[in-house]
Specification:
Strand order of the largest sheet: 3-2-1-4-5-6-10
Largest sheet: 7 strands, parallel
Radius of gyration: 20 Å
CATH architecture of one domain: 3-Layer(aba) Sandwich
Number of helices: 12
CATH superfamily of one domain: NAD(P)-binding Rossmann-like Domain
Number of strands: 12
Bound molecules: nicotinamide-adenine-dinucleotide, thymidine-5'-diphosphate
CATH class of one domain: Alpha Beta
Strand content: 15-25%
Helix content: 40-55%
Length: 357
């Protein structure tokens, strides 16, 4: 069957990107899905091993910061749409090494915007759908909430970490290309995700891994900070909906309506893990260790997703209890994946695999 759309997904070997790629490859056999990923420490082709043989899927290893490579790739492939997820995504790393975030999140996004603008202005003659650039972003661009209130699409940007500042910058650039050049764009800002294939430097997978291995579970500060957690497959479903039905030039907030104080969430995870590992109740909680707070630690994030719910009909498909159960089960069943990502084994493998290209 000939494909009717060529879609470039960036960062498809990462946590959220792999769920988006898997969903699009499976649900849209009429689309040719290209996954462009640098395979940093956070990206890993094992995340897509169930998808890699599909006839509508192509993997390309490459760096969005490399302008010549990006321009050539777009000139050759003439994509009909881009879903941009590639990013440096961990706040703590952005505090120790901001420049990586500036390069990938800002310069990389501008390279993609420029290449996208060229293809949009000179499309493939066989293109059947109007061009679209979909930028995937975070609620962290809105800054930190007090004890009450929710982030709306109209909330002014107030990023406070190098990560959120780099994402805010990329969001502004995407909208600037829309306003200045009329590039057709759409954007979403999502709350904290959790689920399978989550790199174990982020709170939920790190806690699961440490509890499993009887290692201390670090709680920053007093554990009073609040996050709004969304199951990653529900985020992928929102991206699918916004990609197909979202209005050009609009932003949609995506969130779980599921706020948890870090300490309460960690205690819940300890309970779930005690049951799964047949430990006496209260055993895992003893691993909780209070550590020095993250500098500039945002107190609270919470999303108002009513625009997405009312205008496009999205809603989360699982409760937090169900999502967490699926997540914990996945991590316990995928010990080899955890060992390989934490030891950097996949990295060594890719370096060998791609060194001759
Ligand atoms: P991740 O760190 O798990 O994955 C990022 C992917 O991008 C990796 O596969 C990595 O190899 C790739 N990448 C990094 N630099 C690259 C470069 N220069 N060129 C090409 N590829 C590169 O991130 P994630 O958690 O899956 O987040 C994906 C997107 O969603 C990001 O844009 C992030 O800002 C956004 N987001 C994340 C969350 C969350 O809770 N994780 C919430 C809202 C929005
Ligand atoms: P994280 O998963 O890094 O996501 P983000 O910083 O993007 O929200 O952290 C989630 C929350 O958990 C955040 O308030 C920081 C806190 N945290 C800890 O208390 N201990 C940890 O070991 C980590 C990684 C995070």
């Amino acid at each position: 069957m000939p494909f009717n759309r060529k879609i470039l997904i960036t960062g498809g070997a990462g946590f959220i990107g792999s769920h988006v790629v898997r969903r699009f490859v499976k649900n849209y056999p009429q689309y040719h899905i290209f996954n462009l990923d640098k395979l940093t420490y956070a990206g890993n082709l094992e995340n897509l091993k169930d998808t890699s043989e599909a006839s509508n899927y192509t993997f390309i290893r490459g760096d969005i910061v490399d302008q010549t490579f990006i321009d050539e790739l777009f000139a050759v492939e003439k994509f009909d749409a881009v879903i941009h997820l590639a990013a440096e995504s961990h706040v703590d790393r952005s505090i120790t090494n901001p420049l990586d975030f500036i390069m990938t999140n800002i310069v990389g996004t501008v390279n993609l915007l420029n290449a996208a603008k060229s293809v949009w202005q000179n499309p493939n003659s066989q293109s059947q759908t109007p061009f679209l650039f979909y930028h995937v972003s975070t609620d962290e661009v809105y800054g930190s909430l007090g004890k009450t209130g929710l982030f709306k699409e109209s909330t002014p940007y107030d990023p406070r970490s190098p990560y959120s500042a780099s994402k805010a910058s990329s969001d502004h650039l995407v909208m600037a290309y829309h306003h200045t050049y009329k590039l057709p764009v759409v954007m979403s800002n999502c709350s904290n995700n959790y689920g399978s294939h989550h790199f174990p430097e982020k709170l939920i997978p790190l806690a699961i891994n440490n509890i499993k291995n009887n290692k201390p579970v670090p709680v920053y500060g007093k554990g009073e900070n609040v996050r709004d957690w969304l199951f990653v497959e529900d985020h992928a479903a929102a991206i699918d909906l916004i990609f197909h039905k979202g209005k050009i030039g609009e932003t949609y907030n995506v969130g779980g309506n599921n706020e948890w104080k870090n300490i309460d969430l960690i205690k819940l995870l300890c309970d779930v893990m005690d049951k799964k590992l047949n430990r006496e109740r209260g055993t895992s909680e003893k691993l909780i260790t209070y550590v020095t707070d993250r500098p500039g630690h945002d107190l609270r994030y919470a999303i108002d997703s009513s625009k997405l719910q009312n205008e496009l009909g999205w809603k989360p498909s699982v409760t937090f209890e169900q999502g967490l159960e699926k997540t914990v089960n996945w991590f316990l069943a995928n010990e080899e994946w955890l060992n390989n990502v934490t030891s950097g084994n996949y990295q060594h493998y890719y370096e060998k695999m791609y060194s001759n290209r």
